[in-house]
TrEMBL record:
InterPro entries per UniProt: AadA_C
Keywords assigned by UniProt, alphabetized: Transferase
Protein name listed in UniProt: Uncharacterized protein DUF4111
Domain Adenylyltransferase AadA C-terminal: from-to ranges: 24-78
Native organism: Planomicrobium soli
Length: 88
């Protein structure tokens, strides 16, 4: 199943936006967050992170997201954020 950004559920949009905000609280700008997101997570996530970053920045994206890709990236960020919080 695939989703255009405009058709994603508000819960999924909120999760993506919240995740990007958490990253941005560490990194000071959307641009730097996008650069970080395209270079730090595993390469298998780079394309989806780029698409999500562009969709978040413009809020008018024609990007199509697969549900399985979104779930994998969600799980990766959730685990990464939880691991970071445990270290604090």
């Amino acid at each position: 199943m695939s989703y255009a950004w405009d058709t994603c559920s508000s819960e999924l949009k909120k999760f993506i936006s919240d995740s990007l905000r958490k990253i941005q609280s560490i990194i000071t700008s959307k641009q730097k967050a996008g650069i970080w997101g395209r270079s730090n997570p595993p390469k298998r996530f780079h394309a989806i992170i780029r698409q999500a970053s562009e969709a978040y920045e413009t809020e008018k994206s024609a990007a199509i997201f697969s549900e399985s890709d979104l779930n994998r990236i969600r799980d990766y960020f959730k685990k990464s954020i939880e691991d970071q919080l445990r270290r604090i």
